[in-house]
């Protein structure tokens, strides 16, 4: 969509907070240098973030020949954020401080057959309450807050771990998601069509704002705020798992597309009339570089290989990764064959998008690691011309924790910042001289 | 690259001027509605454009129950712009008014063997002088301006057609271009490597600012300012000629990428291990949907077809287009085969970029027209899922003139606006209350 001056103000607020998270504590002068914004703009944005309670003043540093410079840092002891990664067989929830450090985790298993929207929503709500209803050192429950008793029958927990307010919770669910409407448009694994998941969750978790999105976009914003894409203008985040996608982070922001469906790289065609894909087409990227595609390379190259773990795709890939690291020729051949397709697909992204960096993430990338990346870089170097390629780094994700939960929490943080920006703009229109804190400001 | 608040001010200036060109004459109120900007922002930007001499006040319209609204329009009788399309066998130059209407044209033939950079630069300079040195009704030459005599030996023309100042000239050359450095990095047809074309042209045309870029990007900005992409947030301009590309116009601006090479869609892989491509890879999109690829479909399907015009690819395609319109089964089969590949490639763009509109342009698209587009839309509808596709229109370019020359002139206009913005910002920093006209302002 068209960008407005409010978009750019929100984007600047994101950019400044990203740099503060990366460099905390930091002076306004260093932030101006890191973001390319003027000192006056940085000072205004820092003032807004201080008023929102996201930052604190943390002292002074001496500056050469000048007066001491004030330092600001993220208020890591202040509010919290929740990130939810709903996968096919379990719900994983993490609680974050405002510097996006993990404070707590909880899991709920989804048993086979437990696929009714209400059942999944119950599991999500229980896992979220588990992290928001206990302190950082575990166990102790916060007192219930009057007026927010939670759904009938649920344990009386407050939605405020350790008395610290929760700014919001982001929830990632697989498949097609209508973010604005809070609807799971299609989740093939559970045969969901147009499930109003956000409404089901709001009934169960009425205490804080909730946001719905999908794993690909969550991984992409996680890299943008906390990973290898931070500070880069144009980045592509290639996500390799059972499914495959490529999130586009252009001009420092997620590119969503006209119907919020950009990034479906897994179903772009790499070999017209090639392997059949579950989407109905043939030769999609995903059929060659997704986990089932890699297992098929193994089957094609070494049908009776002892690396197979029948019925367990991730164990097979783990065995493959170990064998490749030990120099096993079959495992190395499978990695070369995977890299032949993945390198061609990544070269296509270099040709079309010409990004500064391509970050390869997802559990398959984490398993196969540098063995796969080294082979991919060689293929890309053979296929892409020198000029675009010279501008593009290809790296593994360096996020050590669950990137989907991190990204989901990041969406909650972004939404808080953008709502706060809208409130500040409304305040300015009403004649207030300075942007003020929003109704959701975390100051108690 | 990261966007700054100056970028957004420049983008807003572009957006407002685009709408004025489309709607001239128009009120500030209607501009605010069309651009989504506030009336105050529109009034400021219109003030800047008036000060730059790009607009004029053209009267008033009655408004329901209010005071009459002032109307502004492009100052079509004011300054001019030059667009240069350097193709393989000829240089085509057009002179435009500020509403991007063509005022005049000139051509220079490039004879086989005439490929030395100085020779090509001479032809370009001669064709530019032909349109800037005569009036709209042809023939009459403007008086030479003292101090700008042109290069030695050249006819004494002023660079100011009809006494109207030339704001700038944009030059499109095929191949890889380093826009900032003004260098043709690689032009395969002439075997050019790192030719400093802008310097050669500045020596010959010292009177106005010159800008270098390539045909794909020129076509893309032409669609964005004057074609089907205008007013759309995210658009892709697919260009079909001997070569093939896909310009990305995202958020209302051209996406250039890290090394200014985004859009090389012609060399993304559609059929791994497929037809060999001149880039050294196999199965590139271009080998199936570029002009030589389409001729090859004809040869594969009907080796002895009377549609062949030996040695003349464009005559063959013209014959093919006529035959298809007459229902010739061979021609229709060639179009279906082309659409099978082009539809798969366009479906890939829908998957990855999810644009609001895909504009198909270039001389091959102009020849094959709706026959090709109808077949392509059917293939895309079979391949892309309903959700992203529902958001994407696929249309033929509606630009009736040479889009490359138009786009090249548009680059000159954009550069003038962005230089003017930088000058206005410097003025504000020096304490001037209002943005002032730049040294290049077209007022005599
Ligand atoms: Zn597919
Ligand atoms: Zn190629």
TrEMBL record, chains A, B:
InterPro entries xref list: ATPase_NBD, ROK, ROK_cs, WH-like_DNA-bd_sf, WH_DNA-bd_sf
Sequence ranges of Low complexity compositional bias: 433-444
Gene3D superfamilies: 3.30.420.40, Winged helix-like DNA-binding domain superfamily/Winged helix DNA-binding domain
Disordered, as annotated region: 133-179, 422-444
One matching Pfam family: ROK
Origin: domain of life: Bacteria
PROSITE patterns: ROK
Transmembrane annotation, as ranges: none
Annotated family: Belongs to the ROK (NagC/XylR) family.
Record protein name field: ROK family transcriptional regulator
């Amino acid at each position: 969509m068209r960008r407005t001056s409010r978009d750019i103000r929100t984007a600047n607020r994101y950019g400044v907070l990203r740099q503060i998270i990366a460099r905390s504590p930091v002076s306004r002068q260093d932030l101006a240098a890191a973001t390319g914004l003027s000192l006056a703009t940085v000072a205004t944005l820092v003032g807004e973030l201080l008023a929102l309670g996201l930052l604190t003043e943390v002292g002074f540093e001496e500056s050469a020949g000048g007066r001491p410079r004030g330092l600001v840092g993220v208020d890591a002891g202040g509010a919290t954020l929740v990130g939810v990664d709903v996968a096919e067989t379990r719900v994983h929830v993490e609680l974050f401080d405002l510097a996006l450090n993990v404070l707590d985790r909880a899991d709920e298993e989804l048993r086979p057959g437990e696929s009714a929207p209400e059942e999944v929503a119950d599991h999500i709500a229980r896992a979220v309450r588990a992290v928001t209803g206990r302190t950082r050192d575990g166990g102790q429950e916060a007192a219930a807050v009057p007026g927010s008793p939670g759904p009938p029958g649920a344990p009386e927990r407050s939605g405020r771990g350790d008395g610290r307010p929760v700014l919001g919770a982001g929830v990632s669910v697989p498949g097609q998601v209508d973010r604005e409407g809070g609807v799971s448009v299609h989740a093939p694994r559970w045969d969901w069509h147009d499930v109003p998941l956000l409404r089901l969750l709001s009934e169960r978790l009425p205490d804080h704002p909730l946001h719905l999105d999908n794993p690909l976009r969550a991984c992409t914003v996680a890299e943008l705020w906390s990973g290898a894409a931070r500070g880069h203008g144009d980045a592509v985040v290639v996500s390799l798992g059972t499914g495959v996608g490529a999130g586009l982070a252009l001009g420092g922001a997620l590119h969503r597309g006209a119907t919020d469906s950009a990034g479906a790289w897994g179903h772009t065609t790499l070999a017209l009339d090639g392997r059949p894909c579950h989407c109905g087409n043939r030769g999609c990227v995903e059929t060659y570089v997704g986990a089932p595609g890699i297992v098929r390379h193994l089957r094609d190259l070494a049908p009776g290989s002892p690396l197979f773990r029948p019925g367990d795709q991730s164990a097979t890939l783990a065995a493959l990764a170990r064998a490749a690291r030990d120099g096993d020729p079959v495992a190395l051949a499978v990695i070369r064959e995977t890299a032949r397709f993945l390198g061609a697909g990544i070269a296509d992204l270099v040709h079309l998008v010409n990004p500064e960096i391509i970050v390869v993430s997802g559990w398959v990338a984490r398993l196969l690691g540098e063995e796969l990346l080294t082979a991919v870089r060689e293929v890309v170097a053979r296929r892409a011309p020198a000029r675009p390629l010279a501008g593009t780094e290809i790296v593994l994700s360096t996020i050590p924790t669950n990137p989907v939960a991190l990204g989901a929490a990041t969406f909650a943080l972004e939404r808080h910042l953008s709502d706060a920006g809208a409130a500040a703009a409304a305040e300015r229109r009403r004649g207030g001289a300075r942007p003020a804190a929003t109704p959701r400001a975390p100051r108690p």
